[in-house]
Amino acid sequence: MKLKIKNFNWLAGKPVVILNEKTAKKMNIFVDDRIAIMGDKKFYAVVDIFSKLVKENEIGLSSELGKIIKKKNKSFIEVGTSEMSNASFLIKKKLNGTKLNGKELEYLVAEIVNNNLTAAEIAFFTSAQKLNGMTMKETINLTRAMVKTGAKLKFEGKYIADKHCIGGIAGNRTTPISVAICAAIGLTIPKTSSRAITSASGTADVIETISSVEIPLAKIKSTVNKVGACLAWGGSLGLAPSDDKIIQVERLLNLDVEPQLLASIMSKKISAGSKYILIDVPYGRGAKIATKKRAESLGKKFEAIGRAFKVKLKVVYTNGSQPVGNGYGPILEMLDVIKVLENNGPEDLKEKSLFLATELTKLCGIKNARKKCEEALSSGKAYDKFKEIINSQNGKKNFNEKIDALKLAKYKQIIRAPKTGKITIISNKGINNLCRVLGTPETISAGAYMHKHIGKVKKGEKLLTLYSESKTKLRAGVKFYKEFKPIEIK
Amino acid sequence: MKLKIKNFNWLAGKPVVILNEKTAKKMNIFVDDRIAIMGDKKFYAVVDIFSKLVKENEIGLSSELGKIIKKKNKSFIEVGTSEMSNASFLIKKKLNGTKLNGKELEYLVAEIVNNNLTAAEIAFFTSAQKLNGMTMKETINLTRAMVKTGAKLKFEGKYIADKHCIGGIAGNRTTPISVAICAAIGLTIPKTSSRAITSASGTADVIETISSVEIPLAKIKSTVNKVGACLAWGGSLGLAPSDDKIIQVERLLNLDVEPQLLASIMSKKISAGSKYILIDVPYGRGAKIATKKRAESLGKKFEAIGRAFKVKLKVVYTNGSQPVGNGYGPILEMLDVIKVLENNGPEDLKEKSLFLATELTKLCGIKNARKKCEEALSSGKAYDKFKEIINSQNGKKNFNEKIDALKLAKYKQIIRAPKTGKITIISNKGINNLCRVLGTPETISAGAYMHKHIGKVKKGEKLLTLYSESKTKLRAGVKFYKEFKPIEIK
User: Smallest Cβ distance to A123: which of B123, B131, B441?
Assistant: First the structure.
C-alpha cells in the first residue's frame, strides 16, 4: 500500500510510524505491529496509531526514520505488512530450542541496540533464554555481542578494577566506600552504577544526592584519570546499551534471567575496561539467592566468563539474610556512607565495605591488602578521595555544601518493638517495598532508618523510623509495615 | 510523583498515558513501562513518551483512561512506578513452571481483554505456554476464560454447526461452499472467519470481494435466523476478544502455540453457540503439521475440549501436501468458489468441500448425508443459498452485480514448465508468499492461478499465471518464483 509521508520532528527512541486508525484497519495491522517501508532498501518500523496526527493514507515518520528514509513531506512510499525481520527469525529459532552462534547473537543484539525489535520480541527472547537456557558458550557470545555493540572505555593505570553486587539487599551501600578506599591506595575504578528498579535506592540514586551522576564519557575519562575513580550512572554512557533495553522488558515481571544477568553485568565491566573484577553474591533467606550451593553455581559461571575475556575475576559469597547499614533511601544511605568514611558509621556497612575493598586489592596482587585498606579508611584518606571524586564530578569544590544540604523528610514516625524477644528475620524485600511506599527513590529524603538488626530486643525499643514528605504516604507506610511485618520478633 | 492531568480525546485502544521525556527521565521510566495512577482506586496504564503533546510534569490521559479517572484538566494526580499488576504475577508464575487454575486464567484473560497488559507481557505468557506447556485442564480452563470474557451468540435451530480448518494450505476456500451446502439442507451455521495473516488470502478477504463482512452482532443474528448461515469476519464481533490480542503478539514471530491455538479456535466456536463442530487438520509436507501422528495428537486435544464443553466434535485429517483449488488471492479464490457452486469448478476444491459438508451433516446425525450434500450442490440449491447469504449480508439483492464487478489485475505473466517431468512438490508456503509479493491480500485482484497440480507435466505447459496491479510487483513475483521455486519438477 502506498502512503503519503509526513515527517515528524519527534524522537521516538526507535523507528516508529504513526498511522490513522482507518489506514491501520485497512491494512489489518495494530499498535506495536511491525511494518516494512520500501525505500532504497527495506526499513522496519513499529506501528503507533494516532488518528489526530495523521490523516487516512498518510504515514507519520518519527525523527529516527525520517533521517534514514530521507523523503520529503507528501511524497509517497510503499509499505508492507506481516513482516518478520531476520532478528525475529533468530528469536523464533531460540524459542524452538536451537542454540544460537556468536554471529547470530551479535546480529540480534545489534538489532536490539538499533531499536529494531519490539518489546514483545525482546520478551520472547528473554523467555527463550530463561526456559530453554543458554550454554556457557552462548552466554559468553552474548556477553561479547553486548560489548561489541557499545562504547568502550580505556584507562592507563596498572590496576583497572571494579566491583559488582548482584543486588537484592536493602541498604548495602558499600560501593562508594569500597571505591574510595581502593582509589586511595592506587587502584583505578571507573565505577558505573544503576538506579533503583525495585529497591529503596540504587547506588546512582544515593550518589546523586550530592553529585551529578549523568556524566558524559569524556568527563568520566578525565575524572578517572585525575582522581582514580568515578561514581557515575551507567545508563547514558552507551556501555553495552542493549542491556538497558532488555532490562526494561524484564522488569515488567521483575524477572531475573540468569544468562542475561551474567552477560549484563560482565559486558558493562568489560566495556569499562576493567581487568580486575570482584563479584559479590549475597545469599540467604530473603536474598535473591537462597542457598550457598546456588550462589556458587552462579559464581562459577561468572568465573567462566572472566576466563573467556582474560580478566582476573573473584566471586565472594556474603551474608544476605538482612539489610546492611541503618538507612534505606537515597539521603539516609548517603548519611550512612559519610559516617563510615568519618569512621563513625554502622559497623556492618564498614566491615563489608572493608572486606570488599580488601578482596579487590588482593585480586590486583597487592600485598598487605587488609592493612592498607584499614589504614586508608581510618586515616581519612578514603574520605578525602571520596570528596575528590564528588568535587571532580560536580566540576567544583562544593562537597561540604552538598553534605550540609542533605535533609531528611519532614514527617516521621517511630515504630517500636511490640514485645521483648529476638529479631529473627528482617526481610530485604519488605524493607525495600516499605521505602517505596514512603516515596523512595523519587523522594530522596524519604525512607527508613533501622535501629536494630537481627538479635535481642526489648519491648518498646525503637525498631524503625519512617520518613516521608507526605502524611498520606507515611500513613500508608505504617499500614504496609503492619500488614507485611518485615521485622519478625520471636 | 504528582502530575498535572491533560485529558486527550484520543482512543488509544488501551489505557495509555503520555509523558514528556523529562518527566519520564526523572521517574526512570521508558516507553511501554507500566505505571500506577492513584485515583479512588489504583489504575494501571502503559507509558508513551511524546514531548510535543505534554509539558514536563504533565500527564496526558488517553480517552479510555480519562473516562475511568474522571478528573479535570490541570488537576493533579499521584503516579507511581515499577508496578507489577496481579496479572503480571500470574504470568511470572506460569513462566516459573507453576500451573494456573481456572480462576487465575480467567483473571489473566480478563486483564488482556481490558487492555491492562502490554504486548511484552502477553509475549511472556505466550512463551510460557509454549515452553512450559499447558495441561489439558489448563487448556480447557483457558478456553472457558476466553468464552466467558466475550460476547455470546444464541440461535434457535436444531443443528447449530460450524467447521474450522487449522490453516496453512493455499487456496483451500472450502468454507463458502460447505457452508452453503450445509445451510441448504437445514443446518444453522453462524460462520465467522479471519483475514489473512501470512497467507495469500483469508476466508473473510475472499467473501469481502462481493459482500460486506464487518457485520454487527444484531445483523449476524438476523441473517442467520433468516437464511440459516452467515459468512462474516470474526474480528469485530467481540467473540472471545482476548484471542485477537494474543494473535497480534504471536504473529510478530509467526508463532503457533498449541494450547493457545486450541483455545482460540474452540472459544470462538463455543461463543458462537455451535453444538456440532467439524475440525479440519491438513497434514503432509509443506502443511502446518507434517505427519499424521502429530495431526492425530492435536486432534485428540480438540476432542477433549469438545467433551468438556459438551459439544459434538469431529476431527478430519486431510491431505495438506499441495494447494487446493486453482486460484490464490481474494478474487481468484472467489472465482473458484463460484465455479464450484455452478458445478463447473476445480474438482479438488469441490470434492474437499463436499467431504467436509458431508462430515458435518453426519455429525448432526442426519442420514444419507453424502447424497443430500451432493444433491444440494448439483441442483443449484447450495448456490441459491450462497446468494441468499450474500444478499442478506449486503442488505440488498446485488449478488449478480457484485460477481460481474470482479476483475483480475491488469498485469499478468505466465510461468511455463521448464522441462518435461513430474511435479512432485507444490509448496503451500511458497505459493502464499508469492501471492503476497504480488500484492495480496490488500490488492484483491492480485494473486496466482495454478494450471497444474502434482502429477505429469510437459515442457512449455502453463504452470502458473501471476496477476498484479503493479509492474514492479509482477517483476518481483517472477523473481521470487525463480529464487524460491515453489513448484518442483523431477
Answer: B123
Cβ within 8 Å of A, B 413-442: 436, 441-442
pLDDT, position A458: 97
Mean pLDDT throughout B383-390?
Answer: 98
What is this model's ipTM? Answer: 0.82
Give the residue among A196, A192, A195, A184 at the shortest CA–CA distance from A215.
Answer: A192
Q: Provide, for chain A, the percentages of residues in helix, strand and coil under a 3-state DSSP scheme, each rounded to the nearest 5.
A: 45, 20, 35
How many domains is chain B partitioned into structurally?
A: 4
Catalytic residue among A40, A256, A336, A404: A256
- Cα B273 to Cα B189, B229, B342, distances in angstroms: 10, 13, 31
pLDDT band at B429 (very low <50, low <70, confident <90, very high): confident
Do B210 and B348 lie in a common domain?
A: yes
- Residue B72 in domain: yes
Which residues of chain A have a pLDDT value below 50?
none
Distance from CA of B435 to the nearest CA of A (A): 13
Residue A328 and residue A279 share a domain: yes
Q: How far does B103 lie from chain A, in Å, by closest CA?
A: 20
Domain assignment present for B141: no
Active-site annotation holds for B33: no
Q: Which of A362, A386, A403 is the last residue of a domain?
A: A403
Q: Which of B403, B423, B456 is the last residue of a domain?
A: B403
Residues of chain B in contact with residue A133, where contact means CB-CB under 8 angstroms, are: none
Residue of B30, B249, B253 with shortest CB distance to A92: B253
Task: State in Å, rounded, how far the first CA of chain B is from the last one.
Answer: 71
Which CATH number does the domain housing residue A303 bear? 3.40.1030.10
B50: which chain A residues are within 8 Å (Cβ-Cβ)? 10
pTM of the shown model: 0.85
- Same domain, yes or no, for B367 and B451? no
- Residue B31 sits at the chain A interface (C-beta within 8 Å): yes
For B9, name the nearest residue in chain A, comparing CA atoms only: A52
DSSP 8-state symbol, A82? S
| Residue B195, domain extent | 161-236+259-403
Residues B322 and B447 in one domain: no
Please tell me whether residues B166 and B194 are part of one structural domain: yes
Q: Is residue A317 part of a domain?
A: yes
Residue A479: which CATH number? 3.90.1170.30
Residue with cell 470482479: B406
Which pLDDT score, from 0 to 100, does residue A421 have? 97
